[in-house]
Write a structure and sequence with these properties.
Radius of gyration: 26 Å
CATH topology of the largest domain: HIV Type 1 Reverse Transcriptase, Chain A, domain 1
Number of helices: 12
CATH class of the largest domain: Alpha Beta
Number of domains: 4
Structural class: alpha+beta
Length: 459
């Protein structure tokens, strides 16, 4: 990382690897006891018992969990409930911690204002990468590859003083979790900070062009461009093999069954066709989401903030196929702002209308996004406009017809926000072309404000 431009960021992550990460938490909050036991008795079937024994042995061997040390918490320790639950889409189990349980939960210690949000790469960026490769290499066939980090969060050690808060009780006896655990506010951010630096090395030191979605890395490779990967004793796409070798060099774990590639690949629950340039939403998934939207759009729906966030995440996932439906979440996000996870929120008229609108649009769609429809050249546009704005007013202009329209700043608008006026200029231009031109026309609008470009491009 010696040539990374953000030295302070690099050093903070290296310090976390050396001394253990701290999850932006305060352990001396007013009213919180020095020691707290929130654990509950775990009911185990023979299958769960077998899994748990293997899991404990594995974690202890990798120095990520302590041996048991008795049945009583020591001063300063906290113990949260834990369960053995089915792992989604598999026949396996996993050990989970409920870090939001009780009045004095670990998650309530975390300062959420200090946990930065990260815009993760998603299938929209993968689509752009696919189109870029097809544009630069017309007539070639491509494969998509996907590589997955194993035991994701648990490769990040936690500070020894925070480990005191990560006691878990199994069969009555206590152990200490020494690493980052799933389910805590900030756990994902800690891993993403680490993986961001790994991704930087991949891109700038190893020349691997890949996208990162938490623990998944995606890329596009020309068909037939492969490299031998000795550990798994087979050929992998050239960039994928290089990424696996980089992970080996750094010490990041991975498993053979999670390293995939092909002309058609399912990523984030959506089937991607690398050569027909199609994203397809499975029929069953589409119908389930439509049914859920119908239920949530009913009058009288009142749900916890946590449940609203889960719905919003599900809808957000569907935007890989339905990118133009993004405005459907605006009212949900504003309604949830500033509320605690357990607070209950009514579905007001605006939210119900948004969900009904999204559902109707989904029902009318095949559930297939044709990426080629997003790929066109500027000279294909039926019309081109230029816009600009200042605190006193804004304007748009048709260079071809030499028509221009200007307006003064409306009363009551934020005089300090140039983005507001730049956006209003673009919106005015869009509205004018909508009134003048037939539906489905391609339009190019130029503005000198990058934030406005990003906002309209992403909705």
């Amino acid at each position: 990382m010696s040539s990374h431009p953000n030295k302070v960021f690099v050093e903070s992550v290296l310090e976390g690897l050396r001394e253990g990460f701290w999850p932006w938490a305060s352990t001396v909050k007013e009213g919180y006891p020095l020691t707290w036991d929130e654990s509950k008795q775990m009911t185990l079937t023979p299958e769960k018992e077998e899994f748990l024994n293997k899991q404990l042995e594995h974690e202890v061997n990798f120095d990520r969990m302590s041996q048991d040390f008795g049945m009583e918490l020591l001063p300063g320790m906290y113990c949260m409930p834990n369960y053995v639950v089915p792992k989604p889409h598999t026949d396996n189990w996993r050990l989970v911690n409920d870090l939001s349980a009780g009045l004095f939960s670990l998650n309530s210690m975390v300062d959420r204002q200090r946990i930065t949000g990260f815009p993760l790469d998603n299938l929209a960026q993968l689509g752009e990468l696919l189109m870029k490769n097809h544009r630069l290499n017309p007539g070639k066939c491509f494969v998509i590859w996907k590589s997955d980090v194993a035991e994701v969060y648990r490769i990040c050690p936690m500070h020894v003083l925070w480990q005191l808060k990560q006691a878990i009780r199994i069969r009555g006896k206590l152990r200490i979790e020494q690493v980052n655990v799933f389910g805590r506010s900030g756990s994902g951010v800690i891993f993403i900070l680490l993986n961001a630096l790994v991704a930087w090395i991949a891109k700038y030191k190893e020349l691997i062009e890949c996208l990162i979605y938490v623990d998944d890395s995606f890329g596009v490779n020309e068909e037939g461009a492969v490299e031998w990967y000795e550990l798994y004793d087979e050929d992998y796409t050239f960039q994928q093999a290089r990424l696996l070798k980089l992970w080996d060099k750094i010490g990041i774990p991975h498993k053979k069954k999670k390293q995939l590639s092909g002309g058609r690949l399912t990523g984030l629950g959506i089937e991607v066709n690398a050569n027909n340039l199609l994203f397809a939403l499975p029929k069953e998934s589409k119908e389930r989401l439509e049914k859920e939207l119908e239920e949530w759009g009913q009058k009288g729906v009142r749900k916890r903030v946590k449940e609203w966030q889960q719905l919003a995440g599900w809808i957000n996932w569907s935007f890989n196929i339905f990118p133009l439906l993004r405005p459907a979440l605006n009212n949900i996000y504003s309604k949830l702002k500033g509320k605690t996870q357990e607070a209950k929120v009514w579905a007001n008229t605006a939210i119900r209308e948004d969900l009904s609108w999204a559902r109707e649009k989904m029902k009318q769609s095949s559930g297939v996004l044709v990426l080629k429809s997003l790929l066109w050249k500027i000279d294909e546009a039926m019309c081109t406009l230029e816009t600009d704005a200042c605190p006193e007013g804004f304007a748009y202009w048709y260079p071809s017809s030499k028509e221009g329209f200007v307006a003064v700043t409306p009363a009551g608008t934020p005089l300090t926000s140039i983005i507001f006026y730049e956006s209003m200029a673009v919106l005015s231009a869009l509205r004018d072309t909508h009134l003048r031109l037939p539906s489905g026309c391609k339009i190019v609008i130029y503005t000198d404000n990058f934030t406005t470009v990003s906002m309209f491009n992403s909705l």
